[in-house]
Amino acid sequence: MSQPIISFKEAEKVFPGRGKRPDVRAVDGVTFDIMEGEIFGVIGYSGAGKSTLVRLINALEKPTGGSVVVGGTEIVGLSEAKLRTVRAGIGMVFQQFNLLGSRTVAGNVAYPLEVAGWDRAARKARVAELLDYVGIADKADARPSQLSGGQRQRVGIARALATSPKILLADEATSALDPETTQDVLRLLQQVNKDLGVTVVVITHGMNVVRYLCDRVAVMEHGKVAELGNTYDVFANPQAAVTKKFVGTALKDRPEGDVLDRLRARHPGRLVTVAVNAKEYTGIFNVLAQHNVSGKVVYGGITEVGDLPYGSITWELSADSPQVLDTAVNALYSVASINDLGDAAHPKNSQADTTEVAA
After folding, report:
1. Which end of the chain is more exposed for a tag (fewer CB within 10 A), N or C?
2. Structurally, what CATH architecture does the domain formed by 257-342 represent?
3. Per-residue pLDDT tens digits for 183-205
4. Domain ranges across the chain
């Protein structure tokens, strides 16, 4: 069973106010563990405290309270010399790459090895190994300015892995990349985790990054953890308002607003949105058949979180009588998470009628 490699206990970071401005509690009493070998996501909107929280891990920001334990070492109060030892086991990948323009690709990857005192032959061999691993061995002599964004981020990942860290911090590592390149970089981070056993901590404001990559996720708001859990569970059954907002950005699968109005205009029958997740889904078809209700799919979207399905499908249901429909819809609640939207003549609120079936 894996052990915590990073532990926060009532961790806080307060930036003093200037003049009449109040203090800013960027991290406010955060407590949770990150387990060895997992890919952990920290998500939040701008100003939520996510980047500050992660900078506490390598003490680029010093906590003003609580405890931060990294690799078994309490880093609060450590001297700068001892912090350097802790930081040697932590690699970091940045949003804007932070490569040295005066050095070649190979020179950038070699830089942390030079600082660590590796001899020339060992540095050369390690750089060649890493550039081959991240798929840019042919770019060793190029300058960063000659590379695409995705290639530069691969250099950044190779550099972060140079000294074989146990932890890799990726701070908005894909924010400056296009969607296709983002997927390539996410696959590489996944490969790093799987092949090398490196614990990866991803800071992002994109729920799709979390959906694709992370085992668990902490959702931050106003310096606090609003929600924490297995990524699939957080997607399938979000609790906090901020989490629901993030989940909604990852998959536009539920009709609302003008879209729902147009659906009602085109489809006068009973509209019901049915969640598609890791629970049994075939029971829906059984219920419709048992009650002699016909159904037509009119809206929806399904994707994967990890390797499990996630999303919803909106059906237009019709039957011989409203009473039969009511009975069938009530039966659906027992086999799936549904949202009864009513019909054009008797519309229902698109959010108020959702009922979650116990797992």
Report:
1. N
2. 2-Layer Sandwich (3.30)
3. 999 999 999 999 999 999 999 98
4. 4-250, 257-342
